[in-house]
Each structure stands twice: as structure tokens, then as C-alpha cells.
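INFO  loader      accepted 1 record
INFO  loader      residues=122
INFO  predictor   begin
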Amino acid sequence: MTQRNIAVSIILTIVTCGIYGIVWFVMLNDEIRNASKDYGMPSGGVAFLLTIVTCGIYGIYWAYKMGKAITIAKQEAGLPATDNSVLYLVLQIFGFAIVNYALMQNEMNNIAQKKWDDRKGK
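INFO  predictor   done
INFO  writer      dumping C-alpha cells
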């Protein structure tokens, strides 16, 4: 699990006209999938293709599903879990996918930090 600088990821998404956003989407999906141990979820590449094929409808479902998976991942890591799936769903519906990515990345950064601290014995 990789901690990413959210500001740099947003800037890269803007500078690359969204190409880095696609990469970020795929990496987030795969990391959340692994952290929640929900291997029934599609891989990041498949999730991206499904989003394209369904003209974004799968992306709305994806945002909700990621919220549920992050809740599970936080519980697995021993962090207090709040279910933000409805927030992610609403943001996705209104076209704020990059905000979702930033919020999800923040949650994943917290999980990665907790796991790092646990390994160091803090």
C-alpha cells in the first residue's frame, strides 16, 4: 500500500488532462481491493473499462462500493471506521470524481500510516 501526496496527484491529473486520473483510479481500486480483502471486486483496469462501457454508470456504483470497501479496510487496520459510501456516491453523481479520489486516497494514506506504525511498534 502506497501513501500518495494528494495535492501532487490532483496537479498531475490536471496537467496530464486527466490521464493521471485514470492511473490514480486504477491504483486506488486495486489498493482498496487488497486492503479490504474483497477479491470479488473487479481489478482497477476492469472497473475503468466498465465505467467507459456504461458511460459512467458503473463509476457511480464503483464510488459507493469503494466507500463500503474502505470501511472494511479501516476495520481490518484497527482504525475507527466511518461509512462515507453515500458521500462518495453523491459526489460521483454530481461529477466530482477527483474529490472522491482525494478523499479515498486520504483514507488509504491513513490506513497505510497505521500499518507502518504497527510494524514499527508505535
